[in-house]
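Aim 2 progress update. The chain analyzed this quarter is reproduced below.
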Amino acid sequence: IRSLKRVKDAVAGGRALPQVLREQRVWGRKERLYERILPNLTPAALDRLLQSAHHVDGIVKGMKLPTWPTDNWQAVLRLALMMSKACSPR
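Predicted structure tokens:
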């Protein structure tokens, strides 16, 4: 998620996608995936996903959040579903 955000921010700043992908060490099949999903991701969605990943990290370490599941795997599943929804074409 961090890598996606870095690439999206750099491209939004006017940098060329192939150059940014090389700098972020994104190659091969992963490069094609980035090219496909980046247009579907908004900066706000990436911010939410990054914040959610932070929440999941806390949950795995024992933190309790009222709006998140307490089970580690349920929290990871929720993040994966959020990621899937954010990356799908509109």
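The chain has a mean pLDDT of 94. The first helix runs from residue 2 to 12. These observations will guide the mutagenesis experiments scheduled for the next reporting period.
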